[in-house]
Amino acid sequence: MDELSNLGVKRKLETSNDAPLEESKKILIENDTNTSSNIDTEKQEYFNGVEISKLTKRQLKKYNKMLKWQETKKLKRANERIKTKRKKIEAKLNNIDLGPSRKQLKRSTMANSSCKISVVIDLSFDDLMISKDLGKVIKQILRVYTDNRRAKAPMQLYLTSFEGKAKEEMGKHHGYEYWDINFCEDEYLKIFPKEKLIYLSSESDNVINELEDDKVYIIGGLVDHNSHKGICYKKAVEQGISHGQLPIGEYFKLKHRKVFTINQVFEILLRVSEGKTFKEAFETTLPKRINMQPTQNEIQETKLIEVEINK
Q1: Catalytic: 133?
Q2: What percent of the chain has pLDDT over 70?
Q3: Which secondary-structure segment (H or E) carries 131?
Q4: Which of 78, 163, 224, 300 is least buried, going by the fewest C-beta atoms within 10 A?
Q5: Cβ–Cβ under 8 Å, residues 247 and 208
Q6: What is the mean pLDDT of residues 69-93?
Q7: For 119-163, how does the pLDDT look when each residue is reduced to its tens digit (9 = 90+)?
């Protein structure tokens, strides 16, 4: 039976390899009338609120680029669908795991998750960032959302102070309102009991060695290139809430400040919530270009383990 099923899959793959371009052209031709009519309409009217006849050279270049993209968009999307189909067939042939299916992702929600640890991304710093850096914050949040959606037990994720510039920037991603995230215009102090809050900051003297289910861990939603050093720690002190840093200094020596991106901090928390140690989470999450040298204590502990094994 296995040989027969493999033969069937191979035939499907051969068929999909035969004429992907022709298949995508058929899809394009079916929609050609609608596409051309849309393009003609835009040619006669405006581009970004400016009459076509009054466009500058730079605007005209962008306009022509947009027209070219519209002409090829449907063909490209048809090719992408064919590539996805081929990828699935090849994965089935070679027993490659492509990750959770859409059905699995729909079932894997925060409400159904066994993990009740809450993580807040504090978006109250949008006035301290230029639009480019605010855009980076939102991109990092997209990665956080992706990681949480693909987790077997998603963490309880909140965006607080979600208003103003941050909300406008997020609005560029259509349909975000339906994402499995708790979007809150209020600050975290109005949502959670004060005694449950822990603001993560590399300036804190308190080291977090384990995650607690009833605590809420706050990540500062800020990309500042060291322009506002210690601002999250100062905010926690001023508000009278607990603060702490991740225990990377227990295992590794770093030549620079222990400041990581929003998505890196979240992924470390997520991996620990899944059962990994903090050390394992640091090793799998942080990029290899970060020069992490083991601490003296870590070296001694490793030697002791080796001695015990040799006995």
Answers
A1: no
A2: 72
A3: helix 131-150
A4: 300
A5: yes
A6: 80
A7: 999 999 999 998 899 999 999 999 999 999 999 899 999 999 999
Q: Which one is catalytic: 40, 122, 127, 224?
A: 224
**311 contacts: CB under 8 Å, gap ≥ 6:** none
**Looking at the whole model, is its pTM more than 0.70?**
no
Which of 64, 76, 63 is closest to 31 using CA atoms?
76
**Cα distance between the two ends of the chain:** 51
- C-alpha closest to that of 202 among 134, 267, 271, 260: 260
Distance, in Å, from the CA atom of 119 to the CA atom of 272, rounded to the nearest integer, reads 13
Q: Residue 226 to residues 100, 198, 259, 291: CA-CA distances in angstroms?
A: 38, 22, 9, 19
User: Quick count: other Cβ atoms within 10 Å of Cβ 231?
Assistant: 16
pLDDT confidence band for 97 (50 / 70 / 90): low
Q: What is the DSSP letter of 114?
A: S
Question: What tokens were used for 158?
Answer: 């909140």
